[in-house]
Amino acid sequence: NEVEPTLDLTSSALKVLNSFTKKDPLRAHYGTSIVDALKQTNSCCSDFILVIDGEDKLLGITSSADLQSSKIMILAQRLNLHRDELTLHDVMTPLSNLAGVSLQSISYACIGDALQTMEHQGMMFLLVTSANHEICGLISAREIAKKLHIPVNINPIANSFSEVMQQIDHPH
Questions:
Q1: Band (54; pLDDT cuts 50, 70, 90)
Q2: pLDDT for 74-86, tens place per residue?
Q3: In terms of CATH architecture, what is 13-18+25-154?
Q4: Would you tell me how many other CB atoms lie within 10 Å of the CB of residue 50?
Q5: Domain boundaries, the chain
Q6: Is the model's pTM score more than 0.85?
């Protein structure tokens, strides 16, 4: 049994990269219920699911933590649905809302740089793209927190008026 070297914020960001070329990521159709998606993340020991359409096109991402969070109940109430009726499409972070960095820039970066970028963007994930601009991996803030045994507090940043409205708790 090899002991993994201790990681810290100055370690190479490549140490926390989920490379899709080395390990095929968990994928699920956007119509998959959150209950089924959670079963998949648990059985595959994955922190995230890539949400795809019928043609395997990437639409977004959701974390296993999000599938279990209190946000699910709030969203179900807002959509007037039962929790079991919610799908990945309802809870995913759309691809358009995620920041991406090149594999080349990640190869020069440390874990602290990646985490700072995610904190600045208000995102739990950082997409990593290859030289031909295809998504080849991602970095997860939760995974960094787990591996480094540090707290990670990332607050989502509203990018549109509807997102601002979603983040406001209405008294009505």
A1: very high
A2: 888 988 999 889 9
A3: Roll (3.10)
A4: 22
A5: 13-18+25-154
A6: no
